Amino acid sequence: MINTEQLNFIRKTVTKYLMEDYLPFPVNKRACYEWANGLNIKKGGSTILYTGCSYQLAELGKKFDEILPFLPKFKSIEKFSPLAKIFLKPKNERVNKILRNVVSLLRKAEVDFGYLYEEEPYSGTILLELGMLDEFREYAKKLVNFFNSHEVKKIITVDPHTHYTLFRIKEMLDWNVDIVNYFQLLKNVKIKGEGTYVFHDSCLYSRFLGMRDLIREVIVSSGIILKENELVTGKETSMCCGSPLAPINKEVSEKIAKTRAEALKSVSSKVLLACPFCYANLSPYVESYDFAEVVKVE
Amino acid sequence: MSDWDIAIKRGVEHNVPRVFNVLREHPYLEELARKVREGKLEVSSNLDYYIEMTMKSVEKIGGKAYFAENSQQAREIVGKIVGTGKRVVLGKSMVAYETGIRKYLQSLGNEVWETDLGELLIQLADEPPSHIIAPAVHMTRERIRELIKEKLGVDPGDKHEDIVKVAREFLRQKFLTADIGITGANAVAADSGSIVLVENEGNIRMSSVVPPVHISITGIEKILPNLEYALYEALVQAAYAGLYPPTYINVTSGPSSTGDVEQKRVSPAHGPKEFHLILVDNGRRKANEDPTLREALLCIRCGRCHFHCPVYRALDGKWGDPPYSGPMGAMWSAIVYNDYKPALLCSHAGNCREVCPMRINIPKVLEYLKWKYFNTK
Lengths: 298, 377
Hints:
heterodimer, A: 298 residues, alpha/beta, Rossmann fold, three-stranded parallel beta sheet, B: 377 residues, Fumarate Reductase Iron-sulfur Protein, Chain B, domain 2, four-stranded mixed beta sheet, 17 helices
């Protein structure tokens, strides 16, 4: 059920790549920031929009999870990483659209922010969620130094995993920074949405970050109709998408996703969500959309 | 859909709305849960003191108290009391399973029967339990029918009621002829030496009253400061398990007794003439020394976290080391068996923390156990 060799591989290689390159696996960094081309977001600043490359790498991460059981068997895998850093450049127009729309929403909310482009680091979520806390702490120290050296005082996150990870870093280390999520900045913004969906809560937004009601308010005030069922969408009953288990056991992760998708379909045929990892795990089994994919600024 | 998927879907659909309704209809239960947590924290902050107080209290009311450091000691203590060639009825104790009591007594030449229906099914199938209080939750009624047909030679039919009827007829004879009854304890009152047991089937009442000897085996974390807290624990456990009000709450304070002759309390009377309480450590005291892991000792075994956990459902109930399963089982596998691996499978959905009556931050404990796994390698 648990492949120890696979876990050791993650522990060793992911930590190595993070400490070297601020990314969990070798990939061309353009894949993380090309979405921002042409938007004229200033570089850096005391307030930054921070994607943590989550949306951009979620699909690639899923593919990584698929080949993960085989990777430890290739002793010379390391030799391919310089090539991957050049040629591995996934492009996802859907993700670009989501992130660009987040920028539009924040601009409508008159939020002043910059972006770190090619310097933007990954948050270290995978180490935290797998419980590799010693490695996570080391990487977190590096991350805090990085943000401090860039004089970042406020970070706007766009996904639950990055948001939660930064909170945990604040809890672990002495880090003077404000962390806000883009949903928290949209309370008074006129957003236009339509259609009927069932909302799949991110576990982190809903049960760890206390944002369940806030997110629903933003969605519903846009005009979107959300269908609810106490046994499927309740705070205590809404189930995980299975994504966090993918690096440990792909089959269990997929079984959780299928079960969740079936439950959601019993409420509405279309699922709305707000997390790239939930999308990656659920979309093969149910018609899914990210919130920032279906709304517009009025 | 697999048998497990069908069975757990039915189980969740029956249990989850029922618990919500119970808590809505009886709002005082949440307050009682807070009190039980308070009592448990008090005991865990003075654990050795309360163990000693409990043992003295049991002796004071005519019972015998034992402390077992590990499973082997627990088996030896029970083995000495029971001996050989006896008929033993077991009234559902997870600690008895943890310490291997049933199989050990059988190896000594005793006839041993589980009397909780779920446990009996597990015994007949020779399978580990899949849920902390609904041990046969992985079996559909169709499979149970086949199992009973095969093992007891009777076709009970397809209806839930008919299946229960066959078990009742089979077990009644065992209760009436048993030499020894063994139960667990939902709570132990340190001030009075009383054990409190909550149930619905009546098997625990029969096991603890009909045979001449009653042995209760339980973990030291079940101790509460006094009988008031212990009774609250039974109410809270029943409510969060989903069967409320419970059909029976049993309080046992030593062997049976009477004061009917000139108001002098003498023992035994009609019930058991002997009462033995075995308090089992088996890793619990060590866990209590650990500021993160000690939270897990607050668990009252309601099994609610199982039904809200996506991982437990996806793993066909086989998450954790039996009898401990589900989110609480991932914690207890570490406490009792030093096994940190189950914790690695936690997806930190967080539902378990939301529904836990003791407000145990289960994801936090499991994150810590993941770290322990990597840190102790």
